Amino acid sequence: MPVSLLWAVDVYGRVYSLSTGGQQWEQCRDAQLEFKRVTAAQQCCWGIACDHNIYLNVHASDLPIRYQEETYENHRWNPVDGFSERLLPSDRWQWSDVTGLQHQPLDSFILPSKSWEWEADWYVDENFGGEPTEKGGWTYAIDFPATYTKDKKWNSCVRRRRWIRYRRYKARDTWAKIPSEQSGLPDPFNDISCGGWEISEEPRGRLSLWAVSLQGKVWFRDGIYHHNPEGSNWEEMSVPGEVVQISCGPGDLVWAVLWEGQLIVREGIGRDCPQGTSWVVVDSPSPEVGAIHVGVGVNVVWAITKDNKVWFRRGVNSHNPCGSGWIGMVGEMIMINVGLNDQVWAIGCEDRAVYFRQGVTSSELSGKAWKVISVPRDGDRSHSSASASSLQSAGCFFSGEVRAQSVVSDVDSDTEKEKGSAEGGSDAPTEPASEAPKPRIPKVTSDSFISELVSDREPGKNTSAAPAILEEESNPAEGEVQDPPAAGIALSPSHNVDLEEAQSQQAGAGAVLDSADTCSLSSVATYTLALEEPYGADEHPLWAWVNGGGCSVDCHSQLNWFTLAQSVQSMSLSITPAQTAAWRKQIFEQLSERSKREMDNFRHYEQAIEQSVWVKKGTMQWWRDWKPHKWMDVRFALEQFSGPEGNKDGILFIYYNFNEEKKYLHAFINEVTILVPVLNDSKHTFAIYTPERTKQRWPIRLAAATELEMHDWLALLSVSCCDSRGIQGPPSKQAIWSVTCKGDIFVSEPSPGLEAMPYPTPCDQMFWRQVGGHLRVVECNSVGVVWGIGYDHTAWVYTGGYGGGFFQGLASSTDNIYTQTDVKSIYIYENQRWNPVTGYTNRGLPTDRYMWSDASGLHECTKTNTKPPSPHWTWVSEWAVDYSVSGGTDREGWQYAADFPASYHGYKTLKDFVRRRRWARKCKLTTTGPWQEVPPIPLSDVTILPCTAQSSVEVVPLWAISNKGDVLCRLGVTTLTPAGSSWLHVGTDQPFKSISIGAANQVWAIARDGSAFYRGSVSPQSPAGDCWFHIPSPSKQKLKQVSVGRTSVYTVDENGNLWYRQGVTPSYPQGSSWEHISNNVRKVSVGPLDQVWIIADKVQGSHSLSCGTVCHRLGVQPMEPKGQSWDYGIGGGWDHITVRGNSMEPPRIRLPSLTDPSAPAPRSPLSARNMEVNGNAVRC
């Protein structure tokens, strides 16, 4: 579970945050002012301070917020001066944007606010399309505008070059004031809500910010995204009445509360219109009592009425944002908030505690019960009481005995509240059993705020929070000592109030503020006057606001918010090490004597049972692999036996009927090389491979009746295979990791002969076992550091466990197993053809593809018949048009082409007779495995330094590419802390997609435009290097992946060609040229010994061509690093492999000499010949 924050504001205006992995409220020390309300997303938090200005707190991250400013310098050629600044009157500006329509001189660029700073001065971009230009960065064309080239031609009459300057957002983890607009706002804000990050993934980090002013107007902040966290400007939204509070969900839900108690819903919110189009009025849950507060999520709406009752709105979704009806819930709250995953937080009416709604799932959105969050604040054990003279009271904080009693009393009171709730049949918070009079808690929430503002309009009513504040402070809690009256009531130095208000308070020290002067513009959720420490030793904090918009919690999260750690004084047993050693020796001697006494008398008996046999039987279906191919009902049996020495083995039997004759198949357990779950829409299928069946590409396919039965058999067979081969526990540091195309993770323990020459172990004899989890990419090295990346670009680090998923009991470790989630998008295409009568329509030609199809057009895929990849996946969104398609789209998502299939583009021409658009829908998988998330930056590629097992590297270099193309270097990665500590951003001028680091710290990378780069001067002293060197790509090819070993550099291009970089030496690490090795290659992995493994397509088998096959390059030697031929292993259906952890040196074999009679003969020449034949059987 990633660490995220729950934000809250107490009644004194202080902002606190509670981490999902923490156990105490952390005060935001930077806030030198009081806040009324906060609203959060995962990357930032917005707040309204008591000065009615809006502040932004962007969380610190290893990835900086950088914005690239650019402008173009334009020149025209003339016969006298050549290229010069003298342009024609009809030309563009000398300094302009890329279109030439906007005048942009270098001195016209200014920083948006004080929160930004320039990184460096302006410089010329000397890259054009991924290739370096001539010195000066000029590109040439015939005229403005036209197609520019980096080469100057005889007819080049104009030229331009791009100037770049980066600015960096520096206000991280601090409250930065949002700059006011020049025109100014008509009145201050009193409510704010952010959301909308799920409406569109582009631009990155996009947010919707809604605000409500004191006059009841609604405002929308435009232009908020990752590179512009502050936004651009405020836009007023028309509303049908005066609004008092607003709530925005992560998606397209926006609800607001009117003064009259009704609610309004925003409609028309979408990707192209995030602010929506119109409002719809929804009646209050109770006709007699109006609503005062509303909170919305993705598919839920919660509301609170003026009598503090809680209501849940059913039937809410993107297609019906208004819902269908209200349901009354148990509990009395003053405010409510809905966060990520539709989780709910609220503040109790009586005790002002923060409550969490338990049991909220996708199938039960209303949850089950309220549970109070009972954790201390970070100042509970360090602050003194109100008076400095109360030494005895302050000293109780440091007494272990008193601390233990205090904590136990808190737990007891919580237990009594839970008992009372259970007996009463209600989960609402109840008052603790105490006879002491309860101090009056001031009403400083949304409904009291309404009453205060109403009192401003009605002179007859004069209600104020100030007398209530003084009344509460005049009744200190037990154990507190009050300040002497002479001290008066002083302003806290950490508080911030308006200047006029402060002056009036100083003029009348100790006097009560007049309500008519302070109510309308003072904080409605804070105390403006307070003692130095408002809470006593055992007093719970009083909360005024809570927000979970950035708090990632779900039904699987393990939170430590609900139990207080008891600080019980430890007891010393006064046991010396000498006594412990003596006891241990005495116990060992007694056990030895007992064993000798009981066993010696029976040594002359023969062993009664020499071996044990265990059989498990069941019924399954078997896919008959000869004509007619069909599923047949069979009896399946696993017979296991163990010898007297403890070694285990077994045999699989499949009994079937053929032509009314009983027959069977069998396979020895020690010959099984892999067990693979197979995707099937209607059956729970898995495949069993042996070396012979791996060569034929034809495994034994079995189908169980239920998913549970299939998982039971897979776990049992996997344990049996591991026992027969003597494999136990987690994978070794030398293990080879691989991933299938459906995300299953497999590991294989390499043998010393895997890279031996001239007779290596065939890779079809490798045994693969499954590891729990779901990933797209895995990378490792030989010191045990293993990282993975999911389909949703989340980074995961291996914890050292094994099992997880459907492996339970002995097949899985008891610790280091965590919940893992993954999200991926399913795509289908809507195809249309143009005809002269109706234009584009879904009626195509008889030879056309399906009007709803997959990317190839060969399979029909509609919205209704398209299902998630397997039953483990569940839909988490609706179908939506995908605009992030290669080639671009128009406003409706369409791509145009001359015919199917062809090259698509995002604009229509006269020759375009067909068009298509891609629809996407997200699905989610929840499983378990030995993986922990590495927040917060999503990644697309990762690489770890390959080194020998005896390496003394303390800090392991690890590089990565973010899903936006940024290059990152991970700091603090060691064998004890494989997750590292922080990210170091490495500057680039364009986005990258692949990266690899070699054994000598040589870093190679591939840009998204297919060009290669080498990072210079990378060393342990300079882990990020100093500059990038452009490496020309192979002729007319765009590279997509790179892998670097000890001395070898291999790349794969977008057409599946494998290339080797020649001429790489320590003095010239960039190499000299590319040499083609093979085709039909999907991925390549080069190990620390320069061993080469690939994932290949179109590998010839006994029945058909196989895609996604693991292949091993044979004959790789120091004098012949390119190798000689290919040997294939498991496949197809594989998508990724890494051998960068296998640094096991092969045994040195001396070939026997024909003239030396003393030389020993080879042990098995027959097996050697078979291995050589197999090694040269396949060439990709």
UniProtKB/TrEMBL annotation:
<dbReference type="InterPro" id="IPR010482">
    <property type="entry name" value="TECPR1-like_DysF"/>
</dbReference>
<feature type="domain" description="PH">
    <location>
        <begin position="614"/>
        <end position="724"/>
    </location>
</feature>
<comment type="similarity">
    <text>Belongs to the TECPR1 family.</text>
</comment>
<feature type="region of interest" description="Disordered">
    <location>
        <begin position="407"/>
        <end position="445"/>
    </location>
</feature>
<dbReference type="GO" id="GO:0006914">
    <property type="term" value="P:autophagy"/>
</dbReference>
<dbReference type="GO" id="GO:0000421">
    <property type="term" value="C:autophagosome membrane"/>
</dbReference>
<dbReference type="InterPro" id="IPR001849">
    <property type="entry name" value="PH_domain"/>
</dbReference>
<keyword id="KW-0446">Lipid-binding</keyword>
<dbReference type="InterPro" id="IPR006614">
    <property type="entry name" value="Peroxin/Ferlin"/>
</dbReference>
<keyword id="KW-0677">Repeat</keyword>
<dbReference type="Pfam" id="PF06462">
    <property type="entry name" value="Hyd_WA"/>
</dbReference>
<dbReference type="Pfam" id="PF06398">
    <property type="entry name" value="Pex24p"/>
</dbReference>
<dbReference type="GO" id="GO:0031410">
    <property type="term" value="C:cytoplasmic vesicle"/>
</dbReference>
<keyword id="KW-0968">Cytoplasmic vesicle</keyword>
<keyword id="KW-0472">Membrane</keyword>
<dbReference type="GO" id="GO:0005765">
    <property type="term" value="C:lysosomal membrane"/>
</dbReference>
<keyword id="KW-0458">Lysosome</keyword>
<feature type="domain" description="Peroxin/Ferlin">
    <location>
        <begin position="821"/>
        <end position="882"/>
    </location>
</feature>
<keyword id="KW-0072">Autophagy</keyword>
<dbReference type="InterPro" id="IPR051513">
    <property type="entry name" value="Tectonin_beta-prop"/>
</dbReference>
<dbReference type="InterPro" id="IPR006624">
    <property type="entry name" value="Beta-propeller_rpt_TECPR"/>
</dbReference>
<dbReference type="GO" id="GO:0008289">
    <property type="term" value="F:lipid binding"/>
</dbReference>
<feature type="region of interest" description="Disordered">
    <location>
        <begin position="469"/>
        <end position="488"/>
    </location>
</feature>
<feature type="domain" description="Peroxin/Ferlin">
    <location>
        <begin position="137"/>
        <end position="170"/>
    </location>
</feature>
<protein>
    <recommendedName>
        <fullName>Tectonin beta-propeller repeat-containing protein 1</fullName>
    </recommendedName>
</protein>
<feature type="domain" description="Peroxin/Ferlin">
    <location>
        <begin position="893"/>
        <end position="926"/>
    </location>
</feature>
<feature type="domain" description="Peroxin/Ferlin">
    <location>
        <begin position="64"/>
        <end position="125"/>
    </location>
</feature>
